[in-house]
Structure prediction request, 720 residues.
Amino acid sequence: MTKRWQAFVGLLMIALIAAGCSSSGGTNSEAGSTSGTSGTSSAKKITVSVWALQEHTWIDGAAADFNAANPDIQIEVSKYAVDPMKEALKVAANSGTLPNMWSTWGGSLGSFYAENGLTADLTQIAKDHNWPSLYNQAAIDMGTYNGKVSGIPYHLNAVDMWYSKTVYDKLKLTAPSTFEELEAQLQAMKDGGITPLSLGGKNGWHVMRLTEQLLEHFAGPELHDKLNNLTASWNDPAVVQTFAKLKEYNDKGYFPKGYVALDPTEAVNLFYPGTTGLDIDGTWLDGNIAAAGFNVNDFGVFKFPTGRSSVFAEMFQVSADLDQATLEATIKVGEYLTSAEVVNKYIDSYGTPAALNVTYSENTPHLKPLLDMATKGSFLITDQALPQEVVQKLFEAQDKVALKEWTPEQAAEGMEKAAADYKAKNKTS
Amino acid sequence: MKIGVLKPWLFVFPALFIYIAVIFIPTLYTLYLSFFNWNGVAPTKTFVGLSNYTDLLLHDSVFPRAVANNLLWTLGSLTIIMGIGLMLAILLNQKLKGRIVFRGIFYFPYVLSGVIVATIWTWMYNPMQGLFNKALELIGLGSWAQAWLAEPKFALYAVFVAAIWNGVGQPMVLFLAGLQTIPQDPYEAATIDGAKPRQMFWFITVPLLRETFVIVVAITMVSSMKVYDLIYAMTGGGPAESTHVLASWMYIQTFKFANIGTGSAISMFLVLITLVIIIPYVYYTTKKSHL
Prediction:
């Protein structure tokens, strides 16, 4: 009896622990496989799970419209803030639990899922559905990796200079057309008691928008592209000049006090009432200005005096792990959410659409001018163009130059080392 | 073997099973992953031996800073947060008017999430509109105003002040519970013998709080080694990566860079450092307390 009891308990423990092991082991090599679709397909109804960003308020109404018009397909939207979305996607990718469709960015952020075989190849669908006539080609291209279209684009964002008309009128300034003019205006604002640049350095990306424009100015388009592709050395005089200029602006007090640790939101809050004169921001800023209770017509935009604007795309990537019926339903949902019909209905909150043939709202008067500037020439925004390890080093270099821990030369060397380390680790040429 | 021998194992089995499934096996798996170069989704992992560890120790410029910050944070937690917690517990164990209200006030920040605490304090530290600099200006000490989170010299300490406000409630409550188990007799006897309050504290209160100290020190050490949310939300590890701790650097390596091997190696360092500090302490104190 005692031996039986002992054997029973022993077996029970082994069985349960083995069960625990096997479920834990599910994240091992199978993680890279395409098991675990979240879409459910039946003859009657297909559920399409969509992960969207928190700021996409328009998607709730659009999904409700779609569900009402399509009783055989049900959209289920889950929302995440930007960083939680990146984290949730990595965890879901690792555990084989990606949704049917998720919101992500182009460049090195979206490439992770495409290059690891987690996204459906939409190339043929894009061709069959004539996407070039529906979406801006640049937005399609930013979600295309190794010749394969990996996402349905919904935003094409352009980032450039915003100025406060209150400040510019007060100082009798007009939008500059040359770099020298811009620099003279920065000094004029400083002399007039206005902090010129409303940039916050926390997490690096807001100040990076100035860095990349300075790099475009000093390096020129060709070298800038090569630097972003890691096919040219970052230890280049143009990079040194870029960091030297950042240091100069810092030393002259062109940034808000303590900007290195200032959250971008805190920095932009100084821009709305005219405490600062300039912001480098995207097509979405009209909405933010209105939400903060200010008049969008009190602000203007101009092209940073270089040839190209910084752009980035947002898209819905589609899981590679869908049966044919669910894939078709998901594509239908994706094309609907990104369509001119939805854009036109929700234009005030939609952001900058990748869709063509849309009607822009009077509430977002700067959207079209920014897109027009980008149409004349653009480069992929740096934190999506560079590998994330190199991006992190760029942010560190920006801070260290401002804090006088690094000279501009050391910053350029640090960038080159980060690029070389990345290439060595990933065995790229 | 009689059934009586097996009985304790039966009782411990549910907890043991959960511990093995949720803690022990994932820890072993993390250790296994730390020997590979893997992005988390690729079908193959490249075995790299100890190179994730050696890279962190020899080539990673942030890792040594993160270790130092963790140790500094632990030291600060064990002295300042625990010290203030004990002081408040002793104060609020007295028969004071409104002590329950004060207990609630001091405990309240502990129930707030780290991100909320970070948001509150980030705004208070704002260099232009924040409470601290405005207050300094109001009292004529405007020259003392600082960009508190922007200076690598101050940034970690500025975050730690928020951590004190946030965290002091927990040791306070634990010490309060401990203090309420101490009988009055030793104090009465000591008073008759002419002992001073300071002597009573060192020779009665502290020894009789030994069991509570074991728990508070262990909890404080563990939570200070895994500190993450407050730092990440207030500084993002900056400026110039100066406020990273092991958990935040592990997050960046794992979720931003998709370097699962390196992130796992950082986790193992975190486990190792925690074990090296905690096991001798708990072993020594529990052994002593049962003698």
